[in-house]
TrEMBL record:
Residues 1-22 are annotated as: Hydrophobic. GO terms for cellular component: plasma membrane. SUPFAM superfamilies: 4Fe-4S ferredoxins. [4Fe-4S] cluster 3 binds at residues 123, 143, 146, 149. It comes from Buchnera aphidicola (Brevicoryne brassicae). Keywords: 4Fe-4S, Cell inner membrane, Cell membrane, Electron transport, Iron, Iron-sulfur, Membrane, Metal-binding, Repeat, Translocase, Transport. This is Ion-translocating oxidoreductase complex subunit B. [4Fe-4S] cluster 1 binds at residues 45, 48, 53, 70. PROSITE patterns: 4FE4S, 4FE4S_FER_1, 4FE4S_FER_2.
Length: 163
């Protein structure tokens, strides 16, 4: 009974310490970073060279990173970010890459799919569905065209097609 009381008192004291330190050490979020992050597709695919959408948004706002590195977001995200930040639109990359990269999705050749599930494991937006050892398919509405699944398919049954 005494041990329960001691643990209860310690838990209460540590709870107060944690609450106080959380209050004093609050992180101040930059609203501009939050706004840019909301425009990004949140696929966390790392195609831009950053570990996710939030670090990329932070680099755009704080380090003046290029705004046209988001492959899944495409030209529309680039244009929205340029309007938000009131910066010049990178015309050469928006329109050339929009044609070649941004309007693509993954497609699985069902004759060659062995159901290894490796593509589904690495898909950042869960656009590939299927059970292990069964046929897999891509949900076209959710696929962002980040092409991460290509490198993980051992049978090369994933192709990139235009939407």
């Amino acid at each position: 009974m005494l041990i329960i009381i001691i643990f209860g008192i310690l838990s209460f004291v540590f709870g107060i310490i944690l609450s106080f330190s959380a209050y004093k050490l609050q992180l101040n979020n930059d609203p501009m970073i939050e706004s840019v992050n909301e425009l990004l597709p949140q696929s966390q695919c790392a195609q831009c060279g950053y570990s996710g959408c939030y670090p990329y948004a932070k680099a755009i706002v704080r380090n003046s990173e290029k705004i046209n590195k988001c492959t899944p977001g495409g030209a529309s995200v680039t244009l929205k970010i340029s309007e938000l930040l009131n910066i010049e639109k990178p015309v050469e990359n928006v329109f050339i890459k929009n044609e070649k990269i941004f309007d693509t999705i993954a497609w699985i050749d069902e004759r060659n799919c062995v159901g290894c599930s490796k593509c589904a494991l690495f898909c950042p937006v869960d656009a590939i569905i299927g059970a292990p050892n069964f046929l897999h398919t891509v949900l076209k509405d959710f696929c962002t065209g980040c092409n991460i699944c290509l490198s993980h398919c051992p049978t090369n049954c994933i192709k990139i097609k235009k939407r």
